[in-house]
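Hey, quick one: can you model this chain's 3D structure?
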Amino acid sequence: MTKNRVVAYQWIRGGVTHIEVLSFWQTVMKNFHIAMRDFKNRKRYPDNLRDKDPIANWTVMLDNAGIQRHSSVTGFFFKHQINLIYNAAYSPQLMPVETLFSMVERFCCTRVFKG
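Sure thing. Here's the predicted structure for all 115 residues.
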């Protein structure tokens, strides 16, 4: 996500490993480079910016999950010279939606539903 739009997203059913995380970021980079190549071929793209590396100043913010800190994922970002910032460690009290989820969970787990 940038300040202007969502760059990419992926829905995955079930558990996620570092392999899916790495695959996602590789796809994002590939699609970005294709888009930049097509964009740079336009005549209205300023000549002084054509040769600049478009990812040279990327910063990616990740949550603090173990799969995000796996050596293959961090190595990918290091290889591409992308800065990483991690969220604070998981703290349910800092996320209001977690309070709602716990209330729904308590409601569902203390009821008997007939099917």
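One thing worth noting: The longest strand covers residues 59-62.
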